# Entry
Amino acid sequence: MSGDTPVLRVSGLQRRFGGLLAVSGVDLALPAGRVLGVIGPNGAGKSTLVNLISGHLKPTAGSVLIGDTDLTGARPWRIAHAGVARTFQIVKPFRGLTVADNVTVAVMFGPARIRSRARARQEAERVLERVGLGGKGGLPPAELTVADARRLELAKALALRPRVLLLDEVLAGLRPAEIDPALRLIDELRGEGLTLLVIEHIVQAIAAVSDEILVLHHGAVLTQGPPDEVLGDERVIEAYLGHRYTRRNPS
Amino acid sequence: MAESSTAAPAADTTRPARGRRPRLPAWWPWGGGALLVLGCLGLQSQLYSGQERTVTTVFMFVALAAAWNLIGGYTGYACFGQVGFFGLGAYTTVILMVHARLSFWIALPAAAVVAAVFAAVIGLPLLRLKGHYFAVATLGVAEGLRELVTNVPRWTGGGSGATIPSTGDRAVTPWLGNDGFYLLFLGLAVVCAVVVALVSRGRTGYALRAVNQDEDAAAAMGVNTTVAKTVAFAVSAALTGAAGAAYAFQQVTIYPQRLFDVDITVLMIVMVVLGGAGTVLGPILGAAGIAIASEYLRQHLPEAHDLTLGALIIIAVILLPQGVVNFARDAVRTRDFSLLSNVRRYRL
# Structure
């Protein structure tokens, strides 16, 4: 990481579920405009890490700072107001609302707190256009394709105008042709100075957009560094990628 | 993240495009509501006293169903103890009018405030529960209130009931008469419907619907879910408490068994579910529909009233599980008016 002041700083983060240490001693420091990819086997603690940062779970130990504000254990809406947005691994649309109204909730209750319904709707339409859902604002979420449901999840997060964006498997279920535009959008967001933490199982995709990759294994950081270095690490191959992956992707 | 690849189908010029159907002007719900209220304002003079009392009861249930709709329909917290706020409002009125000798017009808003404060206080722990845990807990609160009222006879008359002096020198406010209560309950129904409409259209409505659909996602969007739920619960309780206050004064003598009867809660819930939970119009239609069906059956099938009404409710819930208003909305949008496909859609 560069010497810039981190927008998101996590120190010694830990979460215990009974006898299971789901996340153990994770440290992160992400400056503005950086993308950190997080990979690891199922059950490694990736989503738990996102839940701890977004306030959906309280840490057993450690701290979460957004800018200079300590938000350890704060409720999710406080963390959202501090500029942290997230998507969920299993999409969570508000099924009783239209696509546009889903995004309007975020515009109205996010840090901008736009109270006028008309202005909020306008902003929601702008965000929907950006993620490729233009013209679908009047549909109920149940009528969206898997890819569009993921776009809606992303639109809700972007409507908060976050400083930090936590993407939990936002590419899952997308067809190859749908992945490239998503990666381009992530790149654009990085260019706008957004700090991103991206959890993903599609290794080529995450390697393409990340400045650094962090590997979680059994809740702890196995290694962290530039994508090439991490993906060539024998411990990462052993714990997550497998030797077949390295044979297929020798570079 | 643009839409991938497939060519758009050629535009079908024979049917209006989806979502482009002619829209009604934005003011029509308010205009329609105002016309309905104006019609009701003159109706009492055309009714026999029995009919007038029935319509007054319909207004009361419109108010109660609209109030329950805020917490149960919009927020998704099925409060099975709503009758507790009804009874609390009623007994607050009794205590203020009998013991403090206050006018009914002071007791009525006071009852609403007491119910709201009580709901906010119990809401803080109870609204952490979800689903049937919340339902059972609120049921327990209503039963607890009934026991409390029964066991402080000095203030409430206990199980023997309490009477509000309504005639002569001891009456702090003279009884309003059938026409007066007709107008009072009409006013309450209008207030409840307007409050629900304003909540529904505003920022709070978005927050409540988001909480209803997914609390974690709502919180991630910046919705303070604790405040949203507590406000909905308190406003719902205030409206229910006000209806309880009016009912106590109308009945003159009230008993805890009747005022805390769980059947009242069940009726509110059935009315909202059948009319359409989470809509402004649904509880109004549900309350009017069930009250009219019940009255018709009472007159024409008195021996089988409960059985037939129960069977009608079961059939209606099977055919229209999302309620009349939500069914109509879906049907207009999808242009599919078949009840059978509606049943299939809800996998019954």
In short: Strands of chain B lie at 162-163, 253-254. Chain B touches chain A through 28 residues (CB under 8 Å).
